[in-house]
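Notes for week 9. Today we move from apo structures to complexes. The key idea is that a small molecule is not decoration. When we ask for a structure prediction with pyridoxal-5'-phosphate present, the ligand SMILES becomes part of the input, just like the chain. The input block below holds both the sequence and the ligand string. Read it once before you look at the output, and try to guess where the molecule might sit.
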Amino acid sequence: MDYFNYRHGRLLAEEVDLVSVAREVSTPVYVYSKGTILLHLERLREAFTELDCLICYSVKANANLHVLRTCAEAGMGFDIVSGGELYRALKGGADPARIVYSGVGKSRDEISAALESGILMFNVESESELAAINDIAARLGCTAPVAFRLNPDTDAHTHEYITTATRQNKFGIAIEEAERMLARWDEFAACRLVGVDMHLGSQITETEPYALAIDRLLLFVEKVRRAGHNVRYFDIGGGFGIFYRGSEARDASEFAGVIVPRLKDKGLTLIIEPGRFIIGNAGVLLTSVIYIKRQSGKRFVICDAAMNDLLRPSMYGGYHRIWPAATHLPFTQDETDETPLADIVGPVCESGDFMAKDRALPNVAEGDVLAIYGAGAYGMSMASNYNARRRAPEVMVAGDSWRIVRRRETYEDLIRPEVEISG
Ligand SMILES: Cc1ncc(COP(=O)(O)O)c(C=O)c1O
């Protein structure tokens, strides 16, 4: 489900040769395929066509302005979790009336800015937050549209760091607690309850957790409606998994298969907040081999991309397919039992700095370019300057053309926000 393919032994993004991009821009560099972003959006739209559905791209997955612009121009709304993401979304051309604001720790400044921008709704995560929103809305003389982000106590069977809807997690409001808040709604007169929301976690590859959680939330919607609130939005969050190894993801239509029948004819607009599903498989990280080091029977392929560029392997043990962007003849695109193993590591001074361990990788040479797949989501958006490394540039491909949409940082960029040393 992407437009990254080999032709004559060289990796193309759409019609663009990626080794040429790597040579011109130098590495490490993120490359995104606009066509793939739009393809993923199309898959979602087709799958949920029977429902009134608003797709709000989750900015945290990849907040590059050109990615956001692509999403906005294609009619997507946005899911944000901070004032910075609000700022970026608006700069990227977002329609504020299609922005939903999630997150457990919205500050008063952030709430004010979102209210003043006219966002669609706040996904409220606690009573204290609801009270703060109410207070700020009353001061501003407006009514705040809010949805309860409920914690349906549903295990999404994903990595423990990215599961978000069990009672052990900090996210969402327990349904009984939301019912208590509902009973005292007159204390929140500056808030208008317009929806319910959940987010089960990320990289979810089973449909059943959605079915279970939606059934729980629908019972709550009935109660809310009986209490006289005009609930219109049913936000199921993000979480649809993608291809990292090659076969684990579900089609959007499989998720829709359990979601659509439950929400059909309920007078609700479905909101989906996909991040990874839109941009994950739409991006690769290109890196060059700096050195090959053999030690204690191991082959270390030392590359110029590191954990500061792509944190997922170190942080979650995240798997990314890695393969040469141009393979020496005879060309092979897949590993075999004979493919030798390697640890693919970066230059950062941490043993946790690896892209893959004991991974089948052909006998690459110093200077070769490798493609790290599935790097579009939670790649650049989690990148840092650790070890005083400059963050990588980003390139957007569209058809047979490409352009740099974020330049490589300079050493001056690294120190710019710091107060100058005087004397
Ligand atoms: C509230 C919320 N919505 C949407 C997302 C996007 O999730 P994903 O990228 O798995 O679609 C996240 C990610 O953690 C989230 O916290």
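Residues 58, 60-61, 79, 102, 199, 202, 237-240, 273-277, 377 surround pyridoxal-5'-phosphate (CB under 6 Å).
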